[in-house]
Amino acid sequence: MWSLAFRNLLFTLLQPGLVAGLIPYWILGSGAGETFNNPLNSLQYIAILIFAAGTAVLIYCVIMFAIKGKGTLSPADPTTDLVVSGLYRFSRNPMYIGLMLMLVGEAIFFFSVRLWIYTAFVFIAVNFFVIFHEEPRLKRDFGAEYRQYLKTVRRWL
Question: Could you tell me the residue ranges of all domains in the chain?
């Protein structure tokens, strides 16, 4: 149990933490600090809500992967059981939706064209990863159960 919790924490910090945390920080550079020197406007408050919603979705999915899937979000340490309940009843990829909400929230909050470009790049990369790596692996690992899931639940929304 503790091992699984530790692995989930580690992979969450390494993967979404890198994509939604460290890389946007590098992209923003010293400009990020300037944003906090000024009062927030209403659009930035909305951005905070979008980011918080994305973070909540991501954390929920990591917990579902640990509890229901008995694994982690990492392809290096995948789930052993297919997760099809909770948010996974509405989307096959709610974790990626959460990640994208986080990035959109950051791009809005910092008024950053570079973050919007990065967010678009991440969305395209995630699509390619899902279509060409993740879905074929899930078909191999879970067979008929995953094929049925494909028929009943959409990839995104």
Answer: 2-152
Distance CA 81, CA 89 (A): 15
**Cβ(90)–Cβ(157) below 8 Å:** yes
Residues 9-20 pLDDT 10s: 888 888 999 999
CB 102 within 8 A of CB 96: no
Are 133 and 76 in contact by the 8 Å Cβ rule? The answer is no
Strands (E), the chain: none
Q: What is the pTM of this model?
A: 0.92
Instruction: Using alpha carbons, select from 155, 151, 15, 126 the residue that is nearest to residue 78.
Output: 15
Token representation of residue 26: 């590098």
**Which tokens belong to 81?**
């059981």
H or E element, residue 98: helix 94-110
Quick one: 78 exposed, middle or buried, by C-beta within 10 A (0-12, 13-18, 19+)? middle
